[in-house]
């Protein structure tokens, strides 16, 4: 058979045989026909392929040993060698002759050297003649040899035993064979064989596989690496089988019944070529092992890199880090070799399994090319688990290297960086999973970074000799144990998911393993699920870090972890077969039981932590809190927050369950307050919701994360599921929750909330008030002290306020001031409070010492007739502290005090008799109760008896009567309900009226609807005896989550409705009103505040801290300015545990106490030392000590000249109020994505707002004092067409221009705007007109201050919906006011500080048709010509500092709508004209109220 070797090219590439010569001639012909006739091209391609099939066969035969030739393929070939040799030589000669005749000449040698000649040859159409004859002859001859070729290929394809070695076990021969085979398959793929149409894609895949293999073998040969004979034998056999398949395709291509047979053959071949078995991977590793000691390969790429390319040819660039890590793992396997230690053997086995699994995906990528979307859509979870597994193996190898001290300190950082890069890609996986709607696996990779970081720390400590070698080894061994647990989790997840591609033991899938034991299948899967859950608990515990008391069961936990690791490796071993199922079914239950025991102990450690944490949660929290939580969860789920990568499934489940329960709460809200069982159930729901919120917020801010937090969240989900079941049962039995056994409760309101008038009569105080007024305005000229005394709730403050605001009193005194003293007064604060009502508090006053303030007050009062009210004095010391500041000029000045202590009032002035307020009689109490409930109507007869009993139970205290009336007024007026209230009161009645009053107040609180309780309790955060700004209060309510979103009204409107309800129930009192009647400020009676703070403590709602005097020496008591806050620090900082904290203290004490609160979500600070925050303090500790804040109010403390950028760490802030000498707000403020209210007090004046502010979608209220400049640095941010949710804005500095207009056009929801408008002159010197605002269709309130020189007449383009307008300093002529007068909805107009100038204001008809409130302040108008027809709806007129005005228009006497005129600092003629109007109105039957205030009248 030696002649067969002559037919082919020998291993020396320079020699040419008969077959190569023929292929060269055919190749020339094919290349000439590339642009010619496709049919002829296809035919010659088939000829070439068939000749190559012969060539491969002859190559194979040539390298057979004589023995193998004799007993093998030689039988089929017989003596055909001479005939085949003659036929091929004749064909070669025919083609050469045809070439000469056609003029091709020497084109075979210089083909392509002359492109023009080549083109001419093509266009000659060299497809006929001698070439055609030669091709036909060759086809006929080859057809004669096909039976022998088919038989030969069948023989060699089925022969797996050789006397010596496989013919293709030489690198060069195998590469040559593979190269020819690849070209044959290529022709098959590109050909027109009908039989292969159904296998087209598979043939293409085969072509790619052969190309990969041929490239790999060639590269290895180029590296001068001797390929292992086993490797070549394995792949050589596959190449021969593939050649056999191609042979059959040629010979049987016309036989359609062969299609199925060929398809099965091709499928088996593709499966055999895949690199997804550990056996094949071992062949590659064995190939490289002799060269593993070569640390540095000079070639690029290295052999290992070439193998990785062969393993996974279609690479995603993002996976580069993983492939580098894979190369490192392969090098580790090569270096270890054949380890003796069992743990290393297991690790090598694990790495080999991971490589083979990656080979599966590499083949999958190879099959579909670059369609990675398909990969992710169908295999995303499995592929991700594999990448995750590779990273875990990298960490395990890393730990082994550290343990053997094979890594230098210099290389540590590079290795850690490589882990970070891998984790970055794994983190982005979540986006792919979401995109392809794939189930996201448990992301155990999140624990890789902590393990690697801990390992590096231990390694460095060991090198620094700060830990012993035993400790070093122990720590790394424990980390290794944790990695084993993580790998076990991945495997269990694959098993539980039923991954069809997961092969156990290399042969059996899980289903196959258990197929013969159906009785075990269910139990095994259940046990594996238990094992999986147990692994989570065990792993989270071992991941630590652990406190000392948490290490009690560490040894048991580590033991179970080791057993779980062995169980994991038992599933990967190759020797587990069918007989092992029984053993498997015994080992698994034992492991589960052992793990359950340890996990029970682990939960015993964490459960006390959970129980103790409940002490931080309030017992009272409205349903609106759940609405806020649901909104936060929705935003988190739509975000790409890092922590969500591992918790998205649980967070989604919490959101889903809470949505269900919130809907349930809405369904039962009518029954909630009257069913104790429902109330308890709802309370449990809210408590678990608070826990869920705390945990998720902890994850968001990354604060105090502990190992048990994921377990806690899992347990909370179990609680929520249980609540869902209970709620479903309640809804199913809906009839059982209707109320039959109790009267209608306070939830069944029958009338809308009504706000009482601020000066509403509590009881008929006419006589009492007259006595007090007489003592204030009459009597001796010496300075006198008038005292009103009585127990709390009698109406002392109400009586004093009535006298203080009486027109005769305001007319009598030149200066008036009111201050609240209380039992914890501060002298400096009261001095400034009094001065603030007499003069403007400028910096020079605010920086005075206390002694200088006393002198300043004395000087301001000297020579004036003044009235000072000191409300709620508890001791004589308060009087003595201020007595020196009150001059006695014998001009009728008075001091009016209120006190609950008669002996204190007597001691203040021995010759002044206190005025005691008595208790009401029963009849007076009943009269007051009727007036509060029915106003001018008569009480229904059926309620009289029980009503009188209720009135008697109030023991004569007006506050008790008012409180109980607030309770009764909000419900149905039915006897049964009133009897229940009466019985409740009588059961608490005691002889002491004050105690009885507190019981009645508590009853009022008890019957408050659930949604109002937290709103009432929240008033406790504010200072005692201070007016509470209503807008700030409602914004805080919203930020706290008290206000639900009802889908109809804005949250601000709902909040104001809640306040009206509280005022209607007499639990809150309106202090000051707005122009249109709304409440501007409110306050809480001191007894109600006592009740409020008591309930805050009982219900864990609020922690109130009043001063730090016990922490600091007395030498610090009066220091606040220029003091180093670090001068003295207590040994332990103040730690707060409740959800809300309100602190009232000196500023330096607050800073020095360094408060903190890991559970605190609301922190409000109020200073007591000054009204003006002069000294700057470093408050950055706040942002580290309170990570979970939603509300932060530091408006009372100066934070310095720079806005703290650390505030962006408080990512959950909804309400932020700050103060300081700042001039700019940083762009990073936009990181507070859920911020709703921003209040900044700029003590220097202008504060620059960043352009990023306009990207904050949640922001609704921005208020900056004194004014804010708007940054326009970012054109993109201002050009966006998206409308913001901003509702109120003050006080921006507006210039007329496109930039300002662009920003304002983004504020289309704006309702309230207070701004400063400055002139901006153009090149011609003309002043630009007022900014266009008519597009702000929802704007209702506008306040504009003009800053500049005299404004030229300009056109105002105000929105038509405007209801309230305030203008200051415009100095416009009066004829320009008509444009304002034509606003159709204007109800309030305030013209201040020379807003208009001119001696005469001539009003015109048809203007101000809806105006109800008009204020003229500091105008130079002298003559005002108007009648009642010009202001047909006017109700309230205020004139202040109009010192040139001669009189109020007399035509107002005919107005039937005018109710009040206030005059201050105007001429006597104005006062006389107002009094005349009052008399005329009285004569017409109208009661016009006139207030004339002479305060500061020094002109």
Topology:
Blueprint: H1 3-6, H2 18-32, H3 38-62, H4 66-71, H5 74-77, H6 80-102, H7 107-110, H8 115-123, H9 130-158, H10 171-190, H11 200-222, H12 229-251, H13 259-273, H14 278-288, H15 303-311, H16 320-336, H17 342-368, H18 372-403, H19 409-435, H20 448-463, H21 469-497, H22 510-515, H23 518-543, H24 554-570, H25 581-613, H26 624-638, H27 644-667, H28 669-672, H29 676-701, H30 709-732, H31 766-777, E1 784-789, H32 796-805, H33 807-812, E2 815-820, H34 827-836, H35 843-846, H36 850-861, E3 866-871, H37 876-883, E4 894-899, H38 902-908, E5 915-916, H39 922-934, H40 941-953, H41 958-969, H42 975-986, H43 993-1006, H44 1013-1018, E6 1028-1029, H45 1030-1040, H46 1051-1064, E7 1069-1073, E8 1079-1083, H47 1086-1098, E9 1103-1106, E10 1140-1145, H48 1147-1152, E11 1162-1167, H49 1181-1185, E12 1191-1193, E13 1215-1220, E14 1237-1249, E15 1261-1270, H50 1275-1279, E16 1288-1294, H51 1298-1304, E17 1312-1318, E18 1341-1347, E19 1364-1368, E20 1372-1373, H52 1378-1381, E21 1388-1392, E22 1396-1397, E23 1400-1402, E24 1413-1417, E25 1423-1425, E26 1436-1440, E27 1460-1464, H53 1468-1483, ...
Parallel strand pairs: 1-4, 1-5, 2-3, 3-4, 9-10, 10-11, 11-12, 12-13, 13-14, 14-15, 15-16, 16-17, 17-18, 18-19, 19-21, 20-22, 21-24, 23-25, 24-26, 26-27, 27-28
Antiparallel strand pairs: 6-8, 7-8
Domain Disease resistance N-terminal: 626-701
GO molecular function: ADP binding; ATP binding
Domain Disease resistance protein winged helix: 1021-1091
